[in-house]
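Per your request, structure below.
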């Protein structure tokens, strides 16, 4: 990746910023800076409409190849798009799981028929997906999934089991599911990657109410639910390969947009410090300075990890989740420390409520998508080549 902006890059940056200024207005104004982690319940119907607005401007799937319906933008242009989208206050993307996770997996592993069936709806912002990975006993240890699937005589698949922490399943039409297709298999062997409609007999969705009041997560129960014969990605037993390819996409360029949202949150913390007089406190000032420095470290590591020529993320990507989740959790603690007693009283004040949400949701940052402990093992074993941690005997 070229770390120096060219004249063409700056022209493109202006194009994105101008489009956002012209379109994130009127009925969409209320969506600015809404719908991110911890706030995903914010006006889902309007955010779905916003997805279609983006699609009309050809701003969905910007990094996908043109033959898959995307714009085929360079890494540099994708970074610019995500940064300017977040800088303008672009809302959390209802189509993120389809565009950022499933779509790239189908482009890499899916059949031509699957690409033709599923990619257009993602590009158009009309079809929304949920991720069926985590289970009560398989979170960070994804290879421990117990949901089972089996093939019927007509070739269709049946699925029974439970998934949990399924983001916006109640707002989605489809779910991709990692399930065990070989009885007696263990770990990452014997898994299948299935595409399933959520509105069908045998699937029940139950919301999970969180400490902060939101309910964007769900439990999803499968009781002999059906996936069509041609809706398995790869062959039976290839599920782990597809699942890992999908998670690799998750660590891609959208992380730069996430960091721009973090910048907005830090700005809110600074404004609150000034309003409460905490900006005069030397310890608070030091913590704000440390947060600012941490953001720069995140940015340059993200650019470094995207700088290789390979489609596989660089080794630097391994430290990303551990670093940003701990940084963000610390920012949440700083937010309530700056607010002082105001943090303890439920509020709809736009200067207070986002910081309360930041604190509550960031408590989970070091747990979901791989706990700190799992991330440190990955850094040690995959990044540094150290011996694997001893595992209990099976």
């Amino acid at each position: 990746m070229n770390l120096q902006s060219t004249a063409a890059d700056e022209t493109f940056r202006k194009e994105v910023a101008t489009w956002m200024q012209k379109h994130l207005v009127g009925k969409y104004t209320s969506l600015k800076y809404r719908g991110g982690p911890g706030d995903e319940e914010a006006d889902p119907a309007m955010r779905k409409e916003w997805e279609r607005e983006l699609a009309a401007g050809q701003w969905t799937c910007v990094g996908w190849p043109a033959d898959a319906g995307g714009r085929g933008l360079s890494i540099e242009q994708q970074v610019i798009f995500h940064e300017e989208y977040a800088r303008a206050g672009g809302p959390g993307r209802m189509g993120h799981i389809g565009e950022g996770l499933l779509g790239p997996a189908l482009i890499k592993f899916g059949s031509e028929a699957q690409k033709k069936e599923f990619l257009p709806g993602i590009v158009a912002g009309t079809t929304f997906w949920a991720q069926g990975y985590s289970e009560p006993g398989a979170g960070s240890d994804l290879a421990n999934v117990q949901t089972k699937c089996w093939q019927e005589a007509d070739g269709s698949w049946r699925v029974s089991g439970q998934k949990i922490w399924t983001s916006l399943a109640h707002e989605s039409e489809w779910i991709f599911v990692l399930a065990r297709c070989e009885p007696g298999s263990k770990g990452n062997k014997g898994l299948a990657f299935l595409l399933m409609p959520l509105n069908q007999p045998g699937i029940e969705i139950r919301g999970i109410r969180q400490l902060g009041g939101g309910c964007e997560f769900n439990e999803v129960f499968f009781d002999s639910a059906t996936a069509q014969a041609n809706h398995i990605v790869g062959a039976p037993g290839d599920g782990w390969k597809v699942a890992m390819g999908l998670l690799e996409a998750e660590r891609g360029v959208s992380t730069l947009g996430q960091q721009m949202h973090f910048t907005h949150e830090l700005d809110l913390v600074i404004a609150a410090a000034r309003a409460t007089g905490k900006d005069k406190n030397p310890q608070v000032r030091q913590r704000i300075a440390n947060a600012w420095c941490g953001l720069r470290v995140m940015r340059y590591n993200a650019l470094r990890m995207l700088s290789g020529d390979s489609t596989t993320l660089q080794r630097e990507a391994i430290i990303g989740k551990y670093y940003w989740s701990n940084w963000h959790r610390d920012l949440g603690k700083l937010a309530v420390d700056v607010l002082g007693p105001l943090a303890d009283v439920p509020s709809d004040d736009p200067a207070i409520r986002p910081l309360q949400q930041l604190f509550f949701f960031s408590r989970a940052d070091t747990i979901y998508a791989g706990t700190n402990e799992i991330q440190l093992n990955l850094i040690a074993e995959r990044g540094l080549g150290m011996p694997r941690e001893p595992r209990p005997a099976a």
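The radius of gyration is 21 Å.

Regards,
D.
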